[in-house]
Amino acid sequence: MKNSSNLNHLKTALCLLPPFLLAVFFYLHFESQLGLFSPICRCSGQPAAVDDHVERLRASATFLPLKDTREGAETWFISTLNDTSEPEGEARNLVFPSAASSGRLLCLRAPSGRDGAKNAYALAWRDALPRGATLRPGLTVVSETAYDHTNIWHGLTSLVPVASWHARGGCRARPARWALFHHGERRSEMSTWLAALAEAATGAPVAIETFDDAPGPVCFEEAVVFRRNIAGLTKERLLVAAEFMRCKARAHCGVVGAAADPSALRVTLLFRTGARAFKDEAAVTRVFQRECARVPGCAVAAAHAGNLTFCDQVRLLSATDVLISAHGAQMTNLLFMDRGSSVMEFYPLGWKERAGGGQYVFRWMASWAGMRHQGSWWEPDGEPCPNSPDIYDCWKGRKIGHNETYFAQWGGRVFADAKRRKMGGDAGKVPAGERRREATTCKCS
Q: 3-state DSSP call for residue 298?
């Protein structure tokens, strides 16, 4: 009975075996046709496919002229992208990589220092950089200006947005290098004054990207582009940026410790040499010394900006309540005075009539840096320019005379006003007990 049952099971199994084998055959056949197992079959060809994809991405990096002559002055540099500010009123900038760049890095080809249209930019993914490209690690600040990074006033207008952005970011982003451009043309120099202030503000020594050691394009691991100078920054944000740079410069130069005597009035004559220098510095100094002597606690210091290091200038202006100076780049040092300090400015013959709005840059700077511009004196008389009746023909090279009566009356008013405000704890001036104490607590916000 048992043998008969086993035989029946064997017959049943043998009957089911052909249909089962047939089902397995068709299953394997159709699934292989549908590609279920095709990834297993394609594994050996995968690297070639990836390499092909990377090469396609590499080839997709299209270089465009860095200076787009079709665009307006504010957007002709990297014209295909719009800069943004966060929050509104902060310095407008372009950040790479970012969502706006679809995660791509900024790559530059900058062989020309004469024609910005011959320099070029492209966006590329880090794993598919253009052929022959060099990758620069860290953060690169790309600064485009219509002015000049070697002039301290012009250079300051390009540094302010960087300092504001750096402070807003909590002072965490320290530049590994700077790439400088003027109308898209490559530049390789920054004034020592500006480089010292940039180092003080960002906490990193300035290294300038020259592009000379790279055989091909240079791509930046991280980059932030500023192309508008101070345009777009609100007055409030400009004031914060000025206070931040003042604080950082003082800390960098060791201007810390006890505050000066609040009853002292410190007047500085900051002279320049060459163009727009005073014809008779000794006479000008005597006029203001005499008026200063009429104010209790007043003292006059005189110096030539060209004889001072960066930190000398920071220390001198940090100890100045009233700055007296001819119009010129050295006036940029007013940044380092205590907030609410006073400025008196002088011009040679011809400037008022013909120099245009640019002659008021230090009036504007005094406003956004928190100072009081106490007026200007334009020399009214003088000889016409040689070989021309137009006094403007030699306006930049002229020197400045003096009017003893006017200078005495003007200086007397400014000194008395500065003394009154200083003793009264005027709201526009940092209280004496807090002066320079801020140097150890620079705010990154």
A: strand
pLDDT in tens, 195-223: 999 999 999 999 999 999 999 999 999 99
Q: How many residues does the chain have?
A: 445
Q: Return the sign of the alpha-carbon dihedral for residues 380, 285, 192, 250.
A: negative
**How far is the CA of 219 from the CAs of 30, 104, 179, 180, in angstroms?**
50, 10, 12, 15
> Average pLDDT of 407-426?
92
Torsion angle of the four alpha carbons 48, 49, 54, 55, in this order, in degrees rounded to the nearest 10: 70
Can you give the three-state secondary structure of the chain, one letter per residue? CHHHHHHHHHHHHHHHHHHHHHHHHHHHHHHHHHCCCHHHHHHHHHHHHHHHHHHHHHHCCCCEECECCCCCCCCCECCCCCCECCCCCCCCEEEECCCCCCCCEEEEECCCCCCHHHCEEEEECHHHCCCCCEEEEEEEEEEEECCCCCCHHHHHHHHHHHHHHHHHCCCCCCEEEEEEEECCEEECCCCHHHHHHHHHHHCCCCCECCCCCCCCCEEEEEEEEECCCCCCCCHHHHHHHHHHHHHHHHHHCCCCCCCCCCCCEEEEEEECCCCCCECCHHHHHHHHHHHHHCCCCEEEEEEEHHHCCHHHHHHHHHCCCEEEEECCHHHHHHHHCCCCCEEEEEECCCHHHHCCHHHHHHHHHHHHCCCEEEEEEECCCCCCCCCCCCHHHHCCCCCECCCHHHHHHHHHHHHHHHHHHHHCCCCCCCCHHHCCHHHHCCCCC
pLDDT tens-digit series, residues 234-267:
999 999 999 999 999 999 999 975 556 888 999 9
The whole-angstrom distance between residue 312's C-alpha and the CA centroid of its chain comes to 23
